[in-house]
Structures are given as C-alpha cells and as structure tokens.
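User: Hi! I'm working on a homework problem where we have to compare a predicted structure to a textbook description. Could you give me the structure for the chain below?
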Amino acid sequence: MDKDVIFEPLTFRNLTVKNRIFRSNISGRFDNYDGSGNQARINWEEKFARGGAGAIISSFVPVTLKGRIVPNYATIHSDDRIHFWSKVGEAVHRHDCKFIMQLSHSGRQQDIEGVENDHIRLSSTSKTESFHGLKCRSMTKDEIKDTVNAFAEGARRAKEAGLDGVELHGANGYLITQFLSSGINDRTDEYGGSLKNRARFLLEIIEAVRQKVGDDFHFQCKISAVEYNDAVIPWEKPGNTLQESVQICKWIEEAGIDSIHVSSGSLFPHPLNPPGTFPLFGDYATDCAKNSYDTMLSSGNATFRNYLLFRYPFLQPLFMWLWYRIPNMRNREKKPFKGLDITAESLNPEFRKFFAPQEVEELLRKYQGISIEDAKAIKAAVKVPIICTGGFQQASYIRNAINDGYCDAVSMARMFVANNDLPQQFAAGKDLPDRPCTYCNKCLLNTLENPLGCYEPARFGGDYQAMIDEVMTVYKPAPGDVEALV
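Assistant: Happy to help. Predicted structure tokens:
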C-alpha cells in the first residue's frame, strides 16, 4: 500500500511534526480573569493531542494583558505564566504532539475589554472599527516599540516553557493585520502608506523575536492572503490583495520565518472565515447569535444595530444579504478539485435524519479549502512550508491539496471541535467522519457566554442533553490551583 501523505512527517528548519494535520487556533473562555491558566485549558488542548493531531497551535495568547480579545484567556505577558504553559506543553507532549504558541494582540478587535482597559483600544489607526463600532486610537511610536518587545518577550517565555515553537497571529483583523492592511492602516509615518511601511511593524516583531529565541526555535506566521475588508460593510476599502500578501510573505521569509499559515479576512468572524453559515435561527438558545451577542452590547457603538439585525426576523434578511454577499460570489467560482463522493453508508443514521448525503456534499463544496488557491500562490513564491486553514475535514481532499502542491499541511479548528479524534479516524480509513462538522459556526458564537464545544444538535441525533454533556467534558478533571497541575 502506498504511503498516505497525511501521515508523512513534515520537517521544518527546527521542528518535525509527525503528520500533516494541525489543530488551528481556537479557544473558549476557560481560564482565570487575570490571565492565569487552569486545568480546563490543559484538558482542552490535550483532547486534540490525544486524538492524533500532529501539532496544536494554541488559542490566541495575548502578549500584553490589555491586548486580549476577551477576559478569561490565558496570557503570556509575564514570567509567572511560564510554569502554566510548561504544564500545557507536557500534557500535549505525552501524545507525541507538538505545541506551538500563537502570540497575539487584539488591537482594536477586542470583543470585551475587561477592567484593565479604558474604552479606547490601541491600533494602527484612530478610525472606529465599522462592524461592531469598536473605538480605538493610533499607537504612538513608543507604544509600538513596547508592543514589539512584548511579542519578543512572549516568545522567550514560550521557549523557556519548553514549547515547540511560536506563531505570530498576523491574520483575521488583529493588531498585526491592522498595520498590514491597506483597508485599515491610515498612518502617515513610517508605519503607514506603502506596503513596505505597513509591513514594518511585523518585520520589527520578527527581528525582535529572533534576537530573543535565536535561530534554533521554530517560528511561523499566520497571514490573511486576501482581506476582503469590504465583505460586510461594502463602502469600506477592500484591503490587501493576494499579490501584496505574496510580497509580504517573501519579506517575512527573508526575515527568518520558518513557515507561513494561510488564512483570509480582515476581521473575525468574517463571511469567509470561518467558512460556513451565521447562526441566526434554531430551537435552542445556543442556536442563535442574539443569545450570546448581547454580551457585547456595551463594547461598541454599532453593537446595538447588530443585535437588532440578529434578533428580529424582519431585519435578518438585510444582515444575511450583507453577510453572504461575498461568499455567494465565491461559491459561483469553479473549485480546483473535490474529495470523494459522500454516500449514505458513510454517515451516521441518526445524523442522516438531519443532513442527507447530498447536503453534506454541498457543504463541503462550498466551504472546504476556502483559501487553498491563495495558499498555492504563496507556496510558489517562497521556500518555507505552507500550512493552509479553511474548512478541511475530508481525507481525500486533504491528500489532493498536499499531493498537488497547494500546501504542505492543513490546519483545522471547528472540525476538531466536532471530532476531536479526526486524524485517528483518517488513519482508520474513514474519508469523512460519520458525524461531520456542519459549518454552522454555533461553536464560535457561543464562546462569548458559554463553554466552547460543538453546539450542533444534529451531530447528537437531536439529543440536546448529550450535546451539552460532551461540551462539559472540558471540565474533567475540574480546574484547580495552577501550582497543583500535573
């Protein structure tokens, strides 16, 4: 039997991963308010290591306390966090899985500020973010310098914790994107204007990190290949093009990046990232965005507008037109390839009561590999390995993507939330889980108020309690004092 490329090791300059399946960054509000971690975080990350992931890219890990998206995310902003992250790494390593910390800063894209912040977020710009109406101000040069150093110190701490590498979150609308993006960055100094100036902040971070961790530590960067900055608010500027991102990738490779993680979109969530539907309807409170988005009502000056659009049926068509405008255009484009056909026998009988094989096949056609052609363009321009994210969950499709030179590995988040053991299912011969992810995005909408997990009742045969029982497994064993963690 020929070797399965999914399970061939991937060798970077300073790291070898046992297979080509990475758990992408995704997180719930599992940790303590002050940014210290607890057992629930360890349970969360270990789920996917136990399930066969080659490497786990951590959730968004803030390099400053003021740079977190929401409270209750474990941070890496001080040396007293090293002990906790070493325990996370140890738990993951027990399963022959690598752990890469994603170093992050929210900038203006901060859903819930927390008591440590005033009402004005830091960014490349003083323009209020247009989707939620999040206020911000342009960072001073001293603040830029301090933030560059915070990223470098975060990388040092990750290395001292015994982790396997770090990733800069330069995608999806967070602070680095806010500097890179022509649709957001309106500075007139050396950090704005030309593409090279907009990339200066990122390049300074890479240089500072390399000075701290040396050349023998794995260091990768996540980037949005195409921003579609006007996807939700049509009068916004479109943002960076693929050609501009290819050039940025050339520069960061020269600066010392070992791998590039390809995504899309200049905000999060974005109509193309994560690919799928926006949850507005359903029988349960966990099915509808209105029931969790109310947490953000005080966060921005457009959140009440959004809440009304989510809540009232006569307004929902307007939101749906705006949200699906770009995805509908993209879905009319011819896809470069597809996975194997879906048969009734391959799906769980209880799941089939809610989703027919033809419906699953259409979901895969629409949402799987949303950034795959962008990844191929970047791969052709650089020499470092390319990781691509965007709706992957079918082994035959992933094999095609790697064998045909679109990318070297894939990352997935929601698909792992739905099936923690997805790589093991592939290894056992399944092409698609019998209860696959339905791209409903309820998992992400619930994270504002509820524990992160799969909130698609169809995957549990319509059994709501079974669904909640599975979500709550993240608390087994229960959180305890960080010093007692084993």
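For your comparison, note the following. The mean pLDDT is 96. The first helix runs from residue 39 to 50. Good luck with the assignment!
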